[in-house]
Amino acid sequence: MNASQPDTKLDELARNYRDGFSLASGFYKDPSVYTVDLDRVIFRSWTFAGHISELTCAGAYFLFEIGMESVIVVRQVDGEIRAFGNVCRHRGSRICDSQSGVVKMFVCPYHVWSYNIDGSLRGMKGESPGSNEKDYRLRPVRLQLVEGLIFVQINSNGPSFREAAEEVSTYLAPYKLSDAKVAHKDVFRVEANWKLCVENFFECYHCSNGHPEYARSHVNASPDGYLTKMLEDQIERRKSLGLAHHSVAKYGSPLSAGQQNYRINPWVLKRGYRTGSQNGGQLAPRLGGLEDLYGGYTSLLIGPTSFFILYSDYLVCFRFSPKGVNLTDMEVCWLVDESAQEGRNYNVADLVWLWTLTTEQDTGLIERNQKGVNSMMYEPGPYTSTEGLVREFVNWYVGAIKYSGEPGTT
Known about the structure:
Elements: H1 8-15, H2 26-29, H3 31-42, E1 47-51, E2 60-66, E3 69-75, E4 81-85, E5 100-102, E6 106-107, E7 114-115, E8 121-123, H4 132-135, E9 142-146, E10 149-153, H5 162-172, E11 180-190, H6 194-201, H7 207-210, H8 212-217, H9 224-240, E12 248-250, E13 262-268, E14 296-302, E15 306-310, E16 315-324, E17 327-337, H10 348-373, H11 388-402
Antiparallel strand pairs: 1-10, 2-3, 2-5, 3-4, 6-7, 7-8, 9-10, 11-17, 12-13, 13-14, 14-15, 15-16, 16-17
Helix pairs in contact: 3-11, 6-10
């Protein structure tokens, strides 16, 4: 579908959207809406792809896959990280099948066209590349590094990442995440539309009953009065440690402004909890050599599908990857300081306990939600006062799918 020629059914859905209410069922189950979601929302946004520690040497690569797209993220000889479409320039075959590896060159298994790790054409079976080299390089994909975190953008006409990267860096810099490493990765497959996964993540209205373990330690699952006082104390603690402490709410800016949407929120843990662990105790060495486990954490929402929970001793990275109209992979990655030694400074089972359990619980809740919105008896219901972020996201989303796709500024 051409982005400048909206689908009539989608137009009707968007036109009938009622602010303050959940989306109509068609947004969650119609294949034509899913196609537009990919085109105007997912591929135009910057998405977390991985961490630089996963690319240990020249030629080390991993695949970033979302929707039907596959991207090769690879370290160059000079140490630079670059990204290319995982599509041969001959007749379009997928080049790499392995999710990661180390190569001297990329070779298409179909007709054996080969490419250097900088994307340039190296060889054509039975022929010399000659002057074709420049015409048939691997397609470059936009990539941005933010404190060791790798973000990519499939559609190069999407918004700029400059403002978001600068502000996010202010919050992340003290933790020295460029010196972190991946401790564990996992994928949770959810039989539901990607928007239901995101909406669930954006609210804690369900936390007290849906996540009792999380609610024991995290204040945003508590009454507002308790939360306000705890946050005031947390701000003072962050100030004393020289950490950024203000909330940043830029999730509502329109795509036509050429800026990536993002939100940053400092939070506090309940008394007795120093980090996101089962008993409140430290799980890994303090990131960046922080002076103390200050009893708080920071949530970062970047674009529509990348989310981060940053504690003093580890970072949890979430990516909600659409795989079909009613199929989503919730991909989770845990980072610890590069000095940490498994079995000595941290235990994987303890490190991943909270967010593995919480994500497994969410899987069931989201799939139940999908079954409900599939029903002919479903009709949009009102958001409560505690679901303000969901309302913000949905308003942003409806605006994004209406947008025809003018190029963003860089």
